[in-house]
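Reminder: ligand-aware prediction takes two inputs, not one.
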Amino acid sequence: MEKMERTYTNDLQSGKKSLVKGWISSVRDLGGLKFLILRDREGLIQITIKKAESKKILELASSLVREDCISVTGMVKNSPQAPGGKEIIPESIELVSKAKTPLPIETSDKIITGLDKRFDFRFMDVRNPKVRAIFRVKDIALTKMREYFESNGFVEVHTPIIQAAGAEGGATMFPMVYYQKEAFLRQSPQLYKQMLMASSLDRIYEIGSVFRAEKFHTRRHVSEYLSVDMEMAWIESEEDVLRIAEGLVEYTLKGLKKDCKKELEVFGAKVNVPELPFKRLTYSDVLGILAKNGLKKEWGDDLDDPDEKLLGQIMEKKGHEWYFITKYPGKIKPFYIMMEGKASRGMDLDCRGLEIASGGQREHRYEELVKVMKQKGLDPHKFEFYLSAFQYGMPPHGGFGLGSERFVQQVLGIENIKEIILFPRTPERLVP
Ligand code: AMO
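Here is what comes back for the chain with aspartyl-adenosine-5'-monophosphate:
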């Protein structure tokens, strides 16, 4: 007999003999009938056992419990009462792998288990269709971002994760032993993506893990996240970078709307594809808006969570879910951002009060760069490998880093960023 190919539950067709494989989501007994609900990556299917007609199958089915792995062959039929409108009348059922009882966490689409317990048993938590939907949205979002970069002339690169120096400040670096030397896990590909602007690659992007030893527990910080980074050379100003950032967001949201309808529905997420160009507010504009709404800040103060949230609400009321904040004070931006008097060419991209990306135009003039490094208390000797790229022909350039989890978090309206990471890393969590 020819080997039958496995069919996912969403591809089943009535009138076709099929093979399905998955976990048992529930078992129900109803007089003359026994129902097994099988769950696979794509959905659910009801397996209907007529007790009188299939004694052998019934015997096996009676020993089955939730989360057992089974494989079922049988005829697919339309059945309006069944979840998804179809059922399988089994010809054979095989128990592939047994599940222990009781189960440590709940896997039905109502999420009732606490977050920590769910992360302890994350492999099982992801069987929950609602949880799985998050990772499909993340997957499609990253695919769309890659498409956008590729179709705009960007080259994908991979720069070192083990680094000799950090770019984003000493406090959040993870040190490690590298043979006899001290090294660090990268906080960002910042220094390398800039060096590549002197390499002729012109436009690059990198999607990779970055590491931050964050001391605070917030709903938007983790110790390891997936950063979407880009850098482009020969720019006129940071405006060139903003245009790519807004184009990327627009393209990705359009793609999600088209390819993730089901998943967005699960979360009741209404994706509005924003109109281009996004609203640009200068940092000074933002202080003005906040002051008018009773929140006074000194010029030069960083924008904290409550400031960003209030601004987000005000902007949303005006019809701007996405907006840039430009011309940040130089003193609160990193050394690599180009200064412009007391301000800078640094920007953030926010969505409904949450910072999703940050970047801007970089300082490409060697002497200026060294001057700012010293002003910010950094030792240029530690950055010689980086600085040498600025001494043999470095074009003007800029770029940004976008937090992929924050992007998905905001699109789906999820409270905690950890939910967007399969195995999150926080100060307390290193396993699983
Ligand atoms: P920044 O440090 O602002 O800039 O980070 C860029 C974006 O990354 C996300 N992000 C985080 N996400 C989860 N957990 C964290 N601990 C965390 N920290 C940051 C945010 C943020 O906007 N090198 C620059 C980028 C550049 O200039 O190109 C950088 O890393 O969404």
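The chain has a mean pLDDT of 96. Residues 167-168, 188, 190, 212, 214, 221-222, 225, 227, 229, 355-359, 399-401, 403, 405-406, 417 surround aspartyl-adenosine-5'-monophosphate (CB under 6 Å). We will return to this case in the review session.
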